[in-house]
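User: Assemble these into one structure.

Assistant: Restating your components, then the assembled model:
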Amino acid sequence: MIDIKLIEECRDGNFNNFRKLVELTSPFAYSVSFRMLGDEDQAKDIVQETMVTIWQKLGKIKSAEVYMTWIYRIVVNKCYDQMRKRKRNPEFVADEQTWALISNRISEVPSAALENKETSKIIALLTESLSPKQKAVFILSSLEEMSNDEISEITGISKSGVKSNLHYARKNISEKVEKYL
Amino acid sequence: MKTESEKYNKVLNILRNSRPPLDSTEDIEREVINKIARAHQKRLNLSEIIDFLFGWVYIGWVRRSLITACVILVLVFVYQQGVILKRIDVISRQTVVTDKGIVTTPTDEIEKLLLGYKNLGRRFPSKTITISEKEMKDLLESVKELQIKYKDLENLIEGDPDLKKLIEQKLIENNRTKINL
């Protein structure tokens, strides 16, 4: 994980250390934003914006311990904004053929990693009927493997809200997996 | 159900393992640095404008001159208020004329009363009252003349008791108001 000392030095205005912080933090921010948005360029934009916000407001966070939660919160909020913007133009249309292709691909790669485009397409299709909040909770919990407490901190949803959203998301995705894959 | 769970877990495992790699950390780092530099430049420009507009407050003699000007303006204001209040006091002692007639008069002198009526005629040029300057002078002249003639008549009656008695009798006969001679 990220060294607290490094964060403290950045809070004091050390720009060189901030470069290092960007290098260490960007992959986490990118992972969440890519899984949320399913678009490499938009995810990179979100990461850049997040890093600029971090530099501007790093001195305002109470302690370095909450740094990662804070970053995830910024990323998730920026992803919400982006999702709201493109709400009317869904990127993927789920038809039988698409599902069949995905099913074949998954059976081909039992444990190996998928390519970015494939990952984004699968996540988009599985979560298309979920609200942005449900999608965020599902990604943070099931894919980023965070605890409910952390998700509650990041999304601002109560713990019981996180549980119910996660339950709904899992049920919904599970039904789709059973039906199409 | 078991198959469904297995399928679901399999898909999730694949997605978890397919963490999107951020291959261009350096690009993001560079972009972030550029954005921060641009934001910093904007802040500098803003501070330059503020300095240009309000920088004079740091010049001692300008500050002192403005304080002096402020004090003078306050004194002038207070003096003006005093003059205005004095004028209001003088005006409030003068005749007040409304559309229903003269409300108050400072003295019971006939000239003032007539002047009031004249003003009334000026302020409300209705059909009821129209008195010109010349008419007013004539009226005042005739009143004075009348007063002189009344005095002469009084002296004449006082000098002749028979005449006085005769006039009194005539007045009683005509049922007129008794005049106190």
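Chain A has nine helices and no strands.
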